[in-house]
Amino acid sequence: MLEIGTTVLTVEDIDRAGDFWRAALGYVSRREPSDDWVILDPPEGPHGRASIALSKTGYPQHYPPRLHLDLYASDQQAELERLRSLGARDVDWHGYPPAADYVVMEDTEGNRFCVVEAPEWFSGEE
Fold first, then answer.
1. Domain total for the chain?
2. Is 125 within the bounds of a domain?
3. Tens place of pLDDT for every residue, the chain, 126 residues?
4. What distance separates the 2 farthest-apart alpha carbons in the chain?
5. What is the span of the domain harbouring residue 52?
6. Do the beta carbons of residue 116 and residue 76 sit within 8 Å?
């Protein structure tokens, strides 16, 4: 059986993107970043929660992207404010359904993600 181990995001600036995602998720670098690659793991290690890798590719971001992350938040408004302070931007998107429980954002590199009001079963603690 397969399971997702790492999601790879393409970036233009490894340091800037690494700083953003480490602060946003509380992840740590698995090892010292190279000029074009870094893997970020949950602080308790890559077992049980997926890692994120950042890859400097040299080609531009495509819009709209075909893949995005859904990040669950127990306090959505607080997380939106915190992510904006780290450099995330709101995406000007007109596809929200009525009573949407998510907000579309992008990181410092233009990679999109949604901040979703956590469902009842989600506690945020593993």
1. 1
2. no
3. 767 789 999 999 999 999 999 999 999 999 999 999 999 999 987 777 889 999 998 777 777 777 899 999 999 999 999 999 999 999 998 888 899 999 999 999 999 999 999 888 876 654
4. 44
5. 6-58+68-117
6. yes
Is residue 111 exposed (0-12), middle (13-18) or buried (19+ Cβ within 10 Å)?
buried
Helix (H/G/I), strand (E/B), else coil: 112: strand
Task: Tell which residue, 17, 39, 27, has the closest CA to residue 111.
Answer: 17
Joined tokens for residue 83: 């992510």
Is there a domain that residue 123 lies in? no
Asked whether residue 113 is assigned to any structural domain, the reply reads yes
Lateral strand order in the sheet of 51-56: 6-11, 51-56, 37-41, 28-29
Contact at 8 Å (CB) between 117 and 102? yes
In a domain, 1, yes or no: no
Task: Give this prediction's pTM.
Answer: 0.86
